[in-house]
Amino acid sequence: MLGPVLLAASRSAAIRRIVSAAPVTRPMVDRFVAGERLAESLGAVRSLTARGLDVTLDHLGEDVTDRSEALRSRDAYLALTEALAAEGLAGRAEMSVKLSAFGQALPGGHDLALANVTPVVEAAAAAGTTVTLDMEDHTTVDSTLAILGELRTRFPQTGAVLQSYLFRTEDDCRALAGEGSRVRLVKGAYNEPASVAHQDKREVDRAYVRCLKILMAGDGYPMIGSHDPRMVAIAQDLAHRLGRKLDEYEFQMLYGIRVAEQERLVAEGHRMRVYVPYGTDWYGYFMRRLAERPANLTFFLRSLVGRR
Question: Which domains does the chain have, with CATH numbers?
Fold first, then answer.
């Protein structure tokens, strides 16, 4: 399986240098990443919202190795919040954050991440938008959900991501299906061991449906993070059967993937939110997109070999 290999490559400095230097890389990256600078990401937001799409913005930055980098991540999001407010975009654009970028993996990382993300959530609320906590590998789940709990005492609109391939996720869905909660359900993109996660795609899909049923039957606000046509159709059927109105859930897809489907859902009256990453630290994100879609990987490798 190439997926785990690519996920490992996303953390390799040597492979990063090779990929970054390849002429074919930039056009491929531009498909999935809205730009390296804040101004470019705002341009993408304006374009998407003009077409009826909502947005969640992710300033790319993981594997933080010291506290100064964590502070730079915090400041990048504070600048983003200020820009969204100034541009009048806060009503259509929220923010997604990875707590690893706020220092979660450093010594004392739980408290450090909470301290760094809190002013971002405060600023988002003041600007009229909100924050969703992205979920990373299974070792971070307890810390991330604990930070979510702390934040929701003051900012109940703070959202979280749950990954259906983890065995624990059905229980987490039940715990987070209450009134006011916002949960983005995804299948999961990290290379997790068989001791904690389903390894078979069909089992991951079945778990996704079970989790989706829990969230849709609950009192919270489900966010269906999937490009899978079957999952989209199942979500629509569940919403209809459970009497959910169109503003009581939403679909979410990645920037540059299944664009026609995104626009189809909007045309049908659904809320469709596009996950828009930006920033200079695009490499890890880009490699995960290749790992998820063999067609993208095949095209990239053929182009890379052809250029050489």
Answer: 1-33+283-307 (no CATH), 37-278 (3.20.20.220)
